[in-house]
Amino acid sequence: MAPIRFEPLAEGALLLHFGEGIDATTSDRVLAAAGTLAHALPEVECVPAYASLLLRFDAGSWQGCDGLAPHLAVRDAAMAALASPQAASPDPREVTVPVCYGGDAGPDLAEVARLTGLGADEVVARHAAGHYRVAMLGFAPGFPYLLGLDPLLAVPRRADPRTRVPAGSVAIGGAQTGIYPDALPGGWQLIGRTPLRLFDPAAAEPAALRPGDRVRFAPIDAARFDALRAESRP
Amino acid sequence: MSVHVLRPGLLTTLQDAGRPGHAALGIGRAGAADPPAWRLANALVGNTGGEAALEITLQGPALRFDRAARIALTGAPIDARVGDDLLPPWTAVDLPAGSVLRLRAMRQGCRSYLAVRGGFAVPPVLGSRSEDLHARLGPFGGRALAADDVLPLGEPGAIDPPEHLRIRRWGVDPQPWFDFAMGPLALLPGSHAGQLDARSRERLCGDRFRIAASSNRTGARLEGGALALAAPLELVSEAVLPGTVQLPPSGQPIALLAEAPVTGGYPRIGQVAAVDLPTLAQRRPGDTVQFTAITLDEALQRQRARERDLHRLVQRVLDRGESER
After folding, report:
1. Would the ipTM clear 0.85, i.e. be above it?
2. Is A228 helix (H, G, I), strand (E, B) or coil?
3. Model-level pTM?
4. Which residues does the UniProt record annotate as the domain Carboxyltransferase (chain B) (predicted)?
5. Which of A12, A107, B110, B198 has its CA 20 to 30 A from that of B150?
């Protein structure tokens, strides 16, 4: 297990590197550390990514500890907390996301089939069979980056990004898969769409998915998509 | 009791200190692009609760006040009139009920702040009244003001409603808080700065870059001789911040501003020092930017000194306003 590398990013920001790649083991370490530090250092904001964890803090309130610069004081506090982790992370939730694959809901399904050399049905079957985990949220509010894509489904991003991807679109970009929570510009390949609302700023918990959640995709047909969409409208 | 938007201006948004604490959900902070100017505008009108102000970009709006109000304009100096009366910048002014405030162009700089005593009484979203245009989040759904919008005003506390425009006797010298000289900006080297090729490393802190017209609250796009990495880098997305200077494949750097997304996947070649980030936000398309390297310790010292000065000034302005009421 690689040691944690600490990088001061800005006056009030420290980046903890746990590795370099997109893999479940590294992501596990990041999310466990995020849980521990959120508990041990509540005044520090923890932002997990695939292989790194950002700590944001008020540089003014961390000054003066034995003359240490604030990021050194935060580094030491983080190292001490990580040496004796508390079981503070909430249990990961299991979330099933219904997806209508192909057709208008997934206009790039045929292109993904062509790029992978698999049939469209095979692409859907492999995508829906995956066990995914939310590694991080980013790009836009509530946008989940999911670990666990079948490597055979990895395809390049579109050469020509769309200016507006419909909300709920399920997409593949490189070795990653994710869901657009809102109508956004985007360059990933769209293979399906969920009727679930992934982000609602007025809700007690605005993002439907949070880092660490386990996700399964359940294929549905267009009629079911319309019915569920009508139900999930506010 | 409200302000009616007669003309929205080029891009006018509600902004406060922003929306910290939600980055793990993919939600950036947003908030005023020039926080000291926003804080001083509020202090000049006697606000102490982090009230939202209007952030005005390049061309100002026309606003009708349906009740008396104490206002102040800070940030970039802007042509501001009520009828034929010219309003002084960085000074508190009392407007009678029914005043139409017409804001036009800025002589220099990119963003002015209009604070109103009592603030704007719109419901906060996730703890903030900032409009995040990038994330489409805020009291107006993350959009700029439009004609016919109505902004409810908060409780102004005790002011005597004036019958005529009344310019208050207290103001702030903008000189230390607005960079009229357009000097170089301090840059902390980013973790991938060492992987620029030798010529690009010289250019990063040496060349002048021009602010591109496509710049916005998310980022200042810097045009100049393209920068290049010595060898391509394979990166996975990680956290970015306001001030982070990213290098996309085009070789034209992007310095992220208040509406920075929370993660990004481009090489990070620098971080604009916090003390100079408001100054960067005041550069307008066509202005130039030059960077000068700074160490983290120097950046911290300058930022602390700046914060101390600002805190003292805010206190003095508030005390003065209190004693003259």
Report:
1. yes
2. helix
3. 0.94
4. 24-309
5. B110
